[in-house]
Amino acid sequence: MLKAVHHIAIICSDYPTSKKFYTKILELKIIREVYRKERDSYKLDLALNGEYIIELFSFPNAPKRPSRPEAQGLRHLAFKVENIEDSILKLHTKGINTEAIRIDPNTGRKFTFFSDPDGLPLELYED
Question: What is the pTM of this model?
Fold first, then answer.
């Protein structure tokens, strides 16, 4: 029945800051950007390696939600990387801090966490 994940929707608190983070820091490509006047809302469709992946929304006065990795609900969004050290270095050169590298006890793979501008936990997972 299910074929794949179609997209991940993220509601941000500061649209220009989050747009810059996802497009300049994480280097996702813009597919389309739409301003919906009736909702005073932006919708930014983003791609990773040519695949549609994230819808970034802005809504006025959107309520805050707990988002640490151990809070109930969506735990985090993970990105697959080839070399975690290189990826971490690239984030650090762009002013993004990451946690120390951890080792997944089940797979032996390296991973780390960092946050988007709203504190959404993001993960790099070496594949």
Answer: 0.84
